[in-house]
Amino acid sequence: MAIKAIALDFDGLILDTETASYLSFREICQEYGHDMPLAVWREWAGGIRTWPLACEYLEGLLGKSVDREELHRHHRHIYNEMIAEWDVLPGVREVLDTAGRLGLKVALASSASAAWAVNHVKRYGLLDYFDFLQTRDNATKVKPDPEIYLKAVDGLGVRADETIAFEDSVVGTQAAKAAGLFCVAVPNHVTANCSFDHVDIRLSSLLDMGLEDIIHTLEKGNPVPQESDI
Q1: For the chain, how far is it from start to end, CA to CA, in angstroms?
Q2: Per the residue annotation, which of 9, 16, 168, 200 is the catalytic one?
Q3: Distance between CA 138 and CA 217 in Å, rounded?
Q4: Pairing mode, strands 132-134 and 163-167
Q5: I need a labelling partner for 11 at 20 to 30 A (CA). Which of 47, 148, 205, 223 fits?
Q6: Angle between helices 170-178 and 147-156 (to 10 degrees)
Q7: pTM: predicted TM-score of the whole model, two decimal places
Q8: Is 9 known to be catalytic?
């Protein structure tokens, strides 16, 4: 077995949009005199129903419905101002540079729309690193279903067991493992306390372990301790 490709999630892995989305909605809840517990938001991370679930949660606190369209505009304004000042997460460029140097194929594997994920990839000057872009636009199901990853490896022309997925959320890692990929979990602020016992390697940052060391570890089948055990 030899690793021939890597596949990267976008939200929360390349850009920490998960944390930005949480902090933005928490600010809105505080405007209403309430809080948005991280423990609650964490349960929704990585999925596509975060927004309606958040609205339902706020409505439950208030005991009445809210203007969701106006709420979404307000949230998006706070959120966009926040991420406009943020760079990609530490280690992302290093992983992509190393993959290019090693001749690995690279896929984006995101449950987000192309208009969202791919446009941000372009904004950060990362598009040329990717050989294939897989988003929800051309998938019938999203994570934790494995379809996104199955389509990504098919688009790269490699096997699942020749590919390493990099993910930040439980639903993302579940999708990658269900598709048969190796999986490296790199939790962010929102997902840091989630259980990732099912992954092959867990890191606190993509800077913790170089891509070549990750590949060597997986190819040799050497166990890597979970972050909590280090």
Answers
A1: 28
A2: 9
A3: 33
A4: unpaired
A5: 223
A6: 60
A7: 0.89
A8: yes
